C-alpha cells in the first residue's frame, strides 16, 4: 500500500490535478481507484483466472479509455462553466449600466428636457422634431425598463 501512495502522489504532481475542482476530484478518485485495483490484482496472484482475465490488454484499454473520457468530459464541462460565468458577469455589467440610467435624477432631467422643447409646436424645424421624438422614445424606453426590469435587478 505504501508503494501505491507514492505512485499516487507522483501521478498527482505530474498531472497537476487540482483538488478544489469537483470534476478533477471525481477524475482523481477514479484514477486512484484504477491504481488501487491494479495494486490489488498484483497482490492477489492466487486466483490466476481472474488476474489473467483482468490483465488482458483489452480490459486495460477499456479502463484507460473510460478514464480518458472522464477527464475529457470534465474539461469540457469546466470550459462551458467558465464561459457561462463570463457571459453572466458581462450581462451583470450591462444591467448595472442600464440601472445607472434609471436613477431618478436622470429621469427628472429628461422630463425637464421634454418640457423645455414641447413637441406640439407647428413651426419647428424637422431635425428638432426628430430629436424630440428620439428623446421621447428614450424616455418611454427607460420608463418601461424601470417598470418591468427594475424588480429583477
Task: Describe this entry's structure for a reader.
- With 153 residues, the protein is an all-alpha fold.
- The protein has 2 domains: 2-89, no CATH class; 102-148.
- Helix content is 81%, strand content 0%.
- The chain has 6 helices and no strands.
- It has helices at 2-15, 22-43, 48-54, 57-101, 104-116, 126-148.
- Helix 5 runs antiparallel to helix 6 (126-148).
Question: What's this entry about, in short?
Answer:
This protein has 153 residues and is mainly alpha-helical. 81% of the residues lie in helices and 0% in strands.
Features:
(rape) hypothetical protein, 2 domains, 81% helix, rod-shaped, 6 helices, 153 residues
Itemize the secondary structure elements and their pairings.
Blueprint: H1 2-15, H2 22-43, H3 48-54, H4 57-101, H5 104-116, H6 126-148
Give the averaged pLDDT, no decimals: 71
What percentage of the residues does DSSP assign to strands (E)? under 5%
Enumerate the spans where pLDDT stays under 50 for 5 or more consecutive residues: none
SSE series: HHHHHH
Give the count of structural domains: 2
So what's the oligomer here? single chain
| Count of distinct strands | 0
Sheet of most strands: none
Shape: rod-shaped
Spatial separation of the terminal alpha carbons: 55 Å
Query: How would you classify the helix and strand content by structural class?
Result: mainly alpha
What is the helical fraction, as a range of percent? over 70%
Radius of gyration: 33 Å
- Count of separate DSSP helical elements: 6
Protein name: (rape) hypothetical protein
GO molecular function, one term: ATP binding
Function: Probable ATPase of unknown function. Its presence in a non-photosynthetic plant (Epifagus virginiana) and experiments in tobacco indicate that it has an essential function which is probably not related to photosynthesis.
Pfam family, one: Ycf2
Amino acid at each position: 500500500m505504501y508503494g501505491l501512495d507514492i505512485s499516487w502522489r507522483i501521478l498527482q504532481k505530474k498531472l497537476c490535478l487540482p483538488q478544489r475542482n469537483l470534476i478533477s476530484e471525481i477524475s482523481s478518485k477514479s484514477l486512484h481507484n484504477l491504481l488501487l485495483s491494479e495494486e490489488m490484482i498484483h497482490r492477489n496472484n492466487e486466483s490466476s483466472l481472474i488476474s489473467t482475465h483482468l490483465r488482458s490488454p483489452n480490459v486495460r484499454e477499456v479502463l484507460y479509455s473510460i478514464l480518458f473520457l472522464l477527464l475529457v468530459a470534465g474539461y469540457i464541462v469546466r470550459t462551458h462553466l467558465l464561459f457561462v460565468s463570463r457571459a453572466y458577469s458581462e450581462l451583470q455589467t450591462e444591467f448595472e449600466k442600464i440601472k445607472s440610467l434609471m436613477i431618478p435624477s436622470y429621469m427628472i432631467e429628461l422630463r425637464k428636457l421634454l418640457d423645455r422643447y414641447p413637441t406640439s409646436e407647428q413651426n419647428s424645424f424637422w431635425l428638432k422634431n426628430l430629436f424630440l421624438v428620439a428623446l421621447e422614445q428614450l424616455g418611454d424606453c427607460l420608463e418601461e425598463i424601470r417598470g418591468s426590469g427594475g424588480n429583477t435587478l
